[in-house]
C-alpha cells in the first residue's frame, strides 16, 4: 500500500523553484507570452494558459529579488508539450481523479471512457483539461475562461454528455480567487464533479495544515478501497511534512481550509473552498518533488465507489442545471 510507507525527511533544495531564474525565463519569452493572459493586482500576478487546458501557469509576487512563486510555476517545456500536468494548476471537469477501468454504470447504461488517453489505464481528471479554453471578459485583474464540450460519437472514450464550464479567475483582496461553474446542456441527467489541481513548491521544511476526519485508503492503482483512520489524519491537523508518508489519497470531511507553510521562509499560503468542495486530495509521493493539495467535489472513482453521498461526493446535474462554487488562495509573508 503506497499510503502507509513512512519516509525520513530529506532535502528538497534542488527542487525549490521559489525564485529560480529558469522559471523566470518563459515570462520574458515573447512567443510563449503571446499565448498567455497575465493578471495583476498590486505585487501579485496570475498567469493563465487558456490553450493548455485552461490552466494556471504561475501565481507569484513581484519582489526586488525576483518573482516569489506561491504555486510551482510551469517550465518552458510544459508550453511546448501543451501539458497541464506540468502547469501550476489546472481545472478538473466533469470529474476529479481516476475512474476505474475507464467505465461506470449510470442511468441504466455503461459509460465507457476507455481509449481517451493511452497513457492511463484509468480515465483521469475528466476532459476539460485536454482542450483549449476560450478567453471571455477580461480586465487587468480578472478574466473569464470558457469551455464547451460537444460529444463526438466517433471519438473513442469521449464524455457522452454535453456541458459548458467556466472559470472566473481574479486577483483581489491580496488573494487569487477562482470561481468554477458548469451547466448540463444535455437532454438527460449527467453525473458530475469538479475541482482544481494546484502544485506547490516542495522543500524540506514545507508543512501542510488541514483539519480532516478520515482518509480513503487506496490500492496499487491509486483507487480507493475503504474510508478509515490513518496517521496522516492527525499529522495533517498538526502540520504534516510532505515527506512523512507516500500519499496519493483522498481525505473526507475537511474543514475546507488548508494552509501550505514554508516556516524557514516565514511565509504560507491558505486555500479556502466553498461547498461542495468537501473532499481533499493530498499528492505527496515519496522520492519525488511534486506536492498537490487539491480541493475537489468528489472522491477518486466516485461514480463506482460504494459509500454514502457525504463520503463519496459528486452529484447528478439535471438538464439545464448549473453548479457554481469558489476557491481562493491567500499568501502571507511574515
TrEMBL record:
One of its GO terms (biological process) is carbohydrate metabolic process. It comes from the Bacteria. SUPFAM superfamilies: Galactose mutarotase-like. It comes from Paraburkholderia tuberum. This is Aldose 1-epimerase. InterPro entries: Aldose_1/G6P_1-epimerase, Gal_mutarotase_sf_dom, GH-type_carb-bd. Gene3D superfamilies: 2.70.98.10. GO terms for molecular function: carbohydrate binding; isomerase activity.
Amino acid at each position: 500500500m503506497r499510503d502507509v510507507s513512512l519516509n525520513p525527511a530529506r532535502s528538497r533544495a534542488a527542487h525549490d523553484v521559489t525564485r529560480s531564474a529558469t522559471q523566470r525565463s518563459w515570462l520574458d519569452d515573447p512567443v510563449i507570452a503571446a499565448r498567455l493572459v497575465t493578471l495583476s493586482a498590486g505585487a501579485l500576478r496570475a498567469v493563465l494558459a487558456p490553450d493548455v487546458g485552461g490552466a494556471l501557469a504561475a501565481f507569484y509576487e513581484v519582489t526586488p529579488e525576483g518573482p516569489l512563486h506561491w504555486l510551482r510555476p510551469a517550465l518552458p517545456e510544459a508550453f511546448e508539450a501543451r501539458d497541464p500536468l506540468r502547469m501550476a494548476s489546472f481545472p478538473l471537469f466533469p470529474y476529479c481523479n481516476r475512474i476505474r477501468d475507464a467505465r461506470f454504470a449510470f442511468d441504466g447504461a455503461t459509460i465507457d471512457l476507455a481509449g481517451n488517453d493511452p497513457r492511463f489505464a484509468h480515465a483521469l481528471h475528466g476532459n476539460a483539461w485536454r482542450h483549449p479554453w476560450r478567453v471571455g471578459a477580461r480586465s487587468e485583474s480578472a478574466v473569464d475562461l470558457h469551455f464547451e464540450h460537444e460529444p463526438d460519437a466517433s471519438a473513442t472514450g469521449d464524455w457522452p454528455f454535453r456541458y459548458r464550464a467556466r472559470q472566473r479567475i481574479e486577483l483581489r483582496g491580496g488573494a487569487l480567487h477562482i470561481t468554477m461553474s458548469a451547466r448540463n446542456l444535455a437532454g438527460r441527467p449527467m453525473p458530475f464533479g469538479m475541482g482544481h489541481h494546484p502544485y506547490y513548491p516542495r522543500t524540506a521544511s514545507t508543512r501542510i495544515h488541514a483539519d480532516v476526519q478520515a482518509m480513503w485508503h487506496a490500492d496499487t492503482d491509486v483507487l480507493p478501497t475503504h474510508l478509515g483512520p490513518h496517521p496522516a489524519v492527525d499529522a495533517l491537523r498538526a502540520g504534516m511534512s510532505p515527506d512523512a508518508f507516500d500519499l496519493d489519497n483522498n481525505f473526507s470531511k475537511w474543514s475546507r481550509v488548508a494552509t501550505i507553510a514554508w516556516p524557514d521562509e516565514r511565509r504560507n499560503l491558505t486555500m479556502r473552498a466553498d461547498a461542495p468542495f468537501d473532499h481533499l486530495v493530498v499528492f505527496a509521493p515519496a522520492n519525488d518533488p511534486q506536492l498537490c493539495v487539491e480541493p475537489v467535489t468528489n472522491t477518486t472513482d466516485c461514480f463506482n465507489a460504494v459509500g454514502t453521498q457525504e463520503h463519496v461526493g459528486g452529484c447528478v446535474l439535471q438538464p439545464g442545471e448549473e453548479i457554481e462554487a469558489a476557491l481562493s488562495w491567500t499568501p502571507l509573508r511574515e
